[in-house]
Specification:
Length: 471
């Protein structure tokens, strides 16, 4: 129960387990995914700068035709990764956002205040610094590149620090990274769309309305949402608005309610287990009876009914996104040729804007806005977290990677500018990750030390506030 004491969620144990266990599974997957993502990035860089670099580019230019009869999409593999697979990525991000707002890190105004304000600072300051360096230049439209935080890489760095990091700090990082994602999607939809075919937008909105109606009517089957979701994606694809935005909007329509409440599940489950046990007493054999098989099937149905479709989809899709979609995206997009040398590539205005935005803007914006929010009483400092740790986390916010690379492809024209931006993203992310790790590597001195101080009637050295999810 050490983790629970650090969190100070409150006294209701079922509520604690409901919030903490899914979050711990989520962070564990993200941390592992960061390692896979880094490996794919290194492979892409080596491949693109090897004697076989032509095969790297030829692979992603290979066309793949999907459809039937006269209704087909014939696009290069790079398109299917960046516009189709990444729509699945954004769909899972949307599920995480909805869960966080309903029962997670953003479930109450006081709980959400600190990460929301910190994320606003972490988006506004980097964008302003980039824009100031590139005003009037050919890369001026890339101000959105240094705005987002890569949650997989940042949590991967925290994983290297192990138990020295309180879970309330991981909650803070995850929460402001989720708010970052919301901001990035809004930027993509509002600022990186050239021409809009409004008739197709109307079709997409209509299909989203149908999905919302099905949710209201209690339809829960994933196949129905998948078929209509593909229609929404195709409508956005042909509308001019980037198709990945569809993923976030579809996620908002996924049902979040359960068919049976937890108490009913416990009673029903106990009855089924009793039925199964009676079969053991009667047969004393190794084979299940008809009654036992029926009890198991009924228990499986109850397990499905006590979990919402939103939770089921997030649980099922998250490993695929973490270990397939994001690594494939990195492999297809991280292959930057270093023909002119590293220093030359990083000396351009676009590269400098990205470097300064991520390295200086992110940590300055996140920490300054978090400090202002706490000092003005808008938010409270997470329980067991020091200012040094918040500053270390603000450096990890500068790990842009996935979203920054994605926005680069939308914001900039020309292979030279795109390569310049990507290289700056890699360098800045490595620097931010290393500095954040160095700041946070001091052993965490929280709950155990404070308990010892109380026993000795010695006041704890710092009033570290609270991050109570029941407030």
């Amino acid at each position: 129960m050490q983790i629970i004491n650090r969190l100070d969620f409150g006294s209701e144990q079922p509520h604690i387990d409901h919030v903490v266990r899914p979050f711990q599974r989520f962070t564990a997957q993200e941390a592992s995914a960061g390692i896979v993502l880094l490996a794919c990035t290194i492979v892409a860089l080596i491949w693109a700068n090897s004697p076989w670099s032509h095969s790297y580019h030829e692979l992603w230019d290979t066309h793949l035709k999907v459809g039937f009869a006269n209704y087909t999409l014939d696009k290069p593999l790079h398109f299917w990764i960046n516009d189709a697979l990444m729509a699945v990525f954004f769909f899972v991000v949307g599920l995480e956002i909805k869960r966080s707002i309903l029962v997670g890190e953003l479930a109450s105004p006081k709980q959400a205040a600190l990460p929301v304000v910190a994320a606003i600072g972490g988006m506004a300051i980097p964008a302003a610094l980039y824009a100031a360096l590139n005003v009037g230049g050919e890369g001026s439209s890339g101000w959105g590149i240094p705005m987002a935080t890569d949650i997989a890489f940042s949590l991967g760095v925290l994983a290297l620090l192990g138990s020295r990091i309180p879970i309330s700090l991981k909650v803070f990082l995850t929460a402001f990274a989720i708010v970052d994602d919301i901001g990035a999607v809004a930027v993509i939809a509002l600022f990186y769309t050239d021409e809009v075919a409004w008739a197709n937008v109307v079709v997409a909105v209509g299909l989203l309305g149908v999905l919302g109606l099905l949710n209201w009517l209690g339809v829960r089957h994933a196949v129905v949402y998948t078929i209509l979701g593909i229609g929404v994606w195709l409508s956005f694809l042909t509308s001019g608005i980037h198709a990945t935005v569809a993923g976030i909007l579809i996620a908002a329509t996924i049902p979040s309610s359960v068919r049976i409440d937890p108490r009913e599940f416990v009673e029903h489950g106990r009855a089924m287990l009793d039925q199964f046990e009676r079969g053991i007493r009667r047969t004393h054999g190794d084979h299940a009876t008809i009654e036992q098989s029926a009890a198991v099937e009924e228990l499986e149905r109850a397990c499905m009914d006590v979990e919402s479709p939103l939770q089921q989809l997030e649980h099922d899709l998250h490993p695929w996104v973490a270990f397939v979609v994001m690594p494939v995206f990195a492999l297809a997009n991280a292959g930057v040729a270093l023909d002119g040398g590293l220093l030359d590539a990083l000396s351009g205005r676009v590269a400098l804007g990205v470097l300064i935005g991520l390295i200086i803007g992110k940590q300055l914006g996140i920490f300054a806005f978090a400090w202002l929010a706490i000092q003005t009483g808008i938010a409270v400092k997470p329980n067991g977290v020091t200012w040094r740790q918040i500053y270390g986390i603000s450096w990890l916010g500068g790990i842009g990677f996935t979203m920054s690379i994605f926005i680069t492809g939308l914001a900039l024209d020309g292979e030279e500018l795109v390569s310049e931006s990507k290289l700056a993203i890699f360098v800045a992310s490595l620097i931010c990750g290393a500095v954040g790790w160095w700041i946070l590597r001091t052993p965490y001195r929280g709950g155990a030390e404070r308990e010892l101080a109380k026993k000795k009637d010695i006041a704890a050295p710092e009033d570290e506030g609270s991050y109570n999810c029941n407030e």
